[in-house]
Amino acid sequence: MASLEDIGVSAFINILTAFAFLLAFALLRLQPINDRVYFPKWYIIGSRTSPTNGGGRRNIVGKFVNLNWKTYLTFLNWMPQALQMSESQLIQHAGLDSAVFLRIYLLGLKIFVPVTILALVVLVPVNASEGTLFFLRKELVISNIDKLSISNVRPKSQKFWFHISMAYLFTFWICYMLYKEYDRVAFMRLHYLASQQRRVDQFTVVVRNVPRVSGHSISESVDHFFQTNHPNHYLGHQAVYNANKFARLIRQRERLHNWLDYNQLKFERHPDKRPTTKTGFLGLCGTKVDSIEFYKQKMQELDKRIESERERTLKDSKAIMPAAFVSFNSRWGAAVCAQTQQSKNPTLWLTDWAPEPRDLYWHNLAIPFVSISVRKLVISIAVFALVFFYMIPIAFVQSLANLDGLKRVAPFLRPVIEVKVIKSFLQGFLPGLALKIFMYILPTVLMIMSKVEGYLAISVLERKTAAKYYYFMLVNVFLGSIVTGTAFEQLDAFLHQSPTQIPRTIGVSIPMKATFFITYIMIDGWAGIASEILRLKPLVIFHLKNMFIVKTDRDRERAMDPGSVDLPETLPTLQLYFLLGIVYAVVTPILLPFILVFFGFAYLVYRHQVCY
């Protein structure tokens, strides 16, 4: 079990790591070559231009490295800049979802700042004044931090009234703050919708599982059905076509157009020499021809093929999918259609609100109802199995966190474990890092599972993935760490006590797991959040694309992907921190300051990410 010294080692390592990430970010963002990576949204809206443009050959170094030494004196100015934008400006700049996402971190601060103050002032002295664990030190594995928890209060003590009172007070405060925040967010949403212009998706419904009728096309069936059942509000529809070949031709034309732009730019820079290319494989062999004329001719030929494929797709009745987008002349008509059953057969004419085109996951549009039901059942079983399969690595992580229990089971490891530096590293830093690594690939796996289930909108896929990930963290990170960690810590007590005493041993040991969660918060909530602002992955990808792929400004804009907050991973993590704070507020209050640091630091980092 981690001691105060072990937690100190972990805190030192994580603070040093976070500082290194922040320092690297502060320096990298000042370099002109990285400008598009750290200010992508400002480029998209046209508020920022590339500092690498212009300057001629005399300033070739200045295109890549910031030579103005004065800017390095203010390398931390990103912190106040991230807080300058008001909430209304933030909504206009990044959208309502981003503003509400940031308010969750503020909600955490509003809830846990007063809770932390009360818990540290009232409960910690009460817990420390007792000495129950001193008499149980031969039966249980304890640390100095455990003496500040509720485990240190003797059974049936009158001091438990402090804990009961604080539990009710904290519950009332949390419910009150949740109510106020929900009321505020609901008002923001209504105000946002009222201030927006009308959009097509507000009047459109997507209908799936359209039955095929002999002698009628899917488009005719949809038109007849909605004119019959919604005559006063039906406006029109758009059938969905299987146009994969057409889409491939469009992508091919975009590549040719990009090569044409590249060669035209090349000619503009050197007008005395026409660019040339070879007509063979990958331009490596064949006849040498004029590049500009070659790509113009290729595009003209491809345009004819595209038009021919378009006409063929529209005339082919088999290319029409059993789905369509139906438009109405009022929001009310669309709402009635989207929220009611359209047929006696509940597996046909399935309607729902149409996602925005950018939010639609097209691959799942034509999946039959029965197939979706089977897929959801199979994925539910797979998620259940995956959750409990991950108990194995979680148990291994807990064995690292509880070396005292491990030494009793495996005495041959004692010489290595007893080395002071190794012991502090294993107990204070490695468990949280190992758990973070095991959890790293999960969001991707769960997103694939959600796609297999057949949901239509990418936003729904993210929400379902987040729900799966949260259940996973609840069972494995929270409950799993407590149960397996308690088993490792109190293994000797389990083996020598009667079965009736095991629940008591677990009950006493649960507050002691706060030490593990403290190390996990420092790994994930401190160093992990600091790595988020560095944007290391987008930085590497941008420069790799810049070296090997980028040929035109269009390529450079595509390489400059602003990305978005990884909601399927971030929201469940947020919920876990709220859960830890609420559970341990009365049980082990010493954990609360670490959660406060997370909420404050994460708010600053994500506000910068949303703004820039």
Task: Kindly describe this structure.
The protein is mainly α and 612 residues long. The protein folds into 3 domains: 4-22 and 78-192 and 382-611, no CATH class; 31-74, no CATH class; 200-355, no CATH class. 65% of the residues lie in helices and 5% in strands. It contains 27 helices and 6 strands. It has helices spanning 4-28, 35-38, 40-44, 78-84, 87-94, 96-129, 132-135, 160-195, 218-229, 244-269, 291-315, 331-338, 369-389, 391-401, 403-409, 414-417, 420-428, 430-440, 442-453, 458-489, 491-496, 502-509, 514-534, 536-548, 553-559, 567-587, 592-611, and strands at residues 204-208, 234-241, 276-278, 288-290, 320-328, 350-353. It has a 4-stranded antiparallel β-sheet. A two-stranded antiparallel sheet has the order 3-4. The longest helix has 36 residues, at 160-195. The radius of gyration is 30 Å and the shape is globular. Residues 54-58 have low confidence and may be disordered.
Topology:
Blueprint: H1 4-28, H2 35-38, H3 40-44, H4 78-84, H5 87-94, H6 96-129, H7 132-135, H8 160-195, E1 204-208, H9 218-229, E2 234-241, H10 244-269, E3 276-278, E4 288-290, H11 291-315, E5 320-328, H12 331-338, E6 350-353, H13 369-389, H14 391-401, H15 403-409, H16 414-417, H17 420-428, H18 430-440, H19 442-453, H20 458-489, H21 491-496, H22 502-509, H23 514-534, H24 536-548, H25 553-559, H26 567-587, H27 592-611
Antiparallel strand pairs: 1-5, 1-6, 2-5, 3-4
Family: Belongs to the CSC1 (TC 1.A.17) family.
Pfam families: PHM7_cyt (PF14703), RSN1_7TM (PF02714), RSN1_TM (PF13967)
GO molecular function, one term: calcium-activated cation channel activity
